[in-house]
Amino acid sequence: MEPRLRVSTSHAGAVTALARHPTGDIVASVGVDKSYVLYDLSTSTVVAQIFSDSALSCVQFHPDGHLVAAGAADGQIKIFDVKTGSNAASFTCSGPLKTLFFSENGTWLASVTEVSSSVSIWDLRKSEVVKVLEIGNRVDCLSWDYTGQFLLTGGPNGLTVQQYSKSAKSWTEPLRSAVPAVAVGWGRSARNIVALNTDGVLTLVGSE
After folding, report:
1. Does some domain include residue 78?
2. Are 117 and 77 in contact (CB under 8 A)?
3. In a domain, 81, yes or no
4. Which domain range does residue 87 map to?
5. Would the CA dihedral through 91, 147, 203, 162 be positive or negative?
6. In angstroms, rounded to a whole number, what is the distance separating the alpha carbons of residues 106 and 44?
7. What is the structure's pLDDT at 1?
8. Other C-beta atoms within 10 Å of 54: how many?
9. Contacts of 169 (CB under 8 A, 6+ apart)
10. Nearest of 170, 171, 194, 191 to residue 181 by alpha carbon
11. Would you state the pLDDT for residue 155?
């Protein structure tokens, strides 16, 4: 099948991650050249390129579409204003960033550093870590469900679901599975989980 759209990247080097804007019209990429690039899919053009202080490894848009977060090799999480390109906030982690994910309610940002078994939960209102979840196995990928109460983690040793109770203000682990994953996601209405392993095999966990 021929591609329907081609946009030349502005990166000087390898691209390490992509994220799609909530509207579906904008895509962000990050790379080893220390920059993130915004592409307008409706016009097939590059609309902005913003440079940081270190190679960037992961990226995700905030659910409201006004902010984009990029994780760096120097342990920094940079949050940029999508419209102006200005640095809206910066968080410091203990090592190079592996992945990050905004909660759907827009309140929290979950982050994981390279070869780590813990997930840091940042409260965007306070600009600080409010919880560190010790998973026990290496975490390579994350996904919040649509309620912002269930956080899915995946790695070479399996999956977990971490649940936050608003009433108890505490975390529990309702699910742990030995299914390995390099990428994870939630199914419709978060009734099941989809996991992709290194062999390209998709596994469905939960009810259909």
Report:
1. yes
2. no
3. yes
4. 12-134
5. positive
6. 29
7. 53
8. 17
9. none
10. 194
11. 98
Tokens coding 40: 């307008």
For tokens 């994870």, name the residue: 184
- Same domain as 177, residue 87: no
Could you give the CA distance from residue 68 to residue 63 in angstroms, rounded to a whole number?
9
- What is d(CA 56, CA 153) in angstroms, rounded to the nearest whole number? 21
Q: Is the pTM of this model over 0.85?
A: yes
* CA dist list (Å): 15 to 31, 36, 62: 4, 9, 20
The two structure tokens encoding residue 208: 């259909």
Residues of the chain with pLDDT under 70: 1-8, 207-208
Distance CA 10, CA 44 (A): 13
Q: Are 52 and 119 in the same domain?
A: yes
- The tokens 């906030």 sit on which residue? 89
Within 10 angstroms of residue 152's Cβ, the number of other Cβ atoms is 25
CA dist 132 → 116, 122, 128, 136, 167 (Å): 12, 9, 11, 12, 19
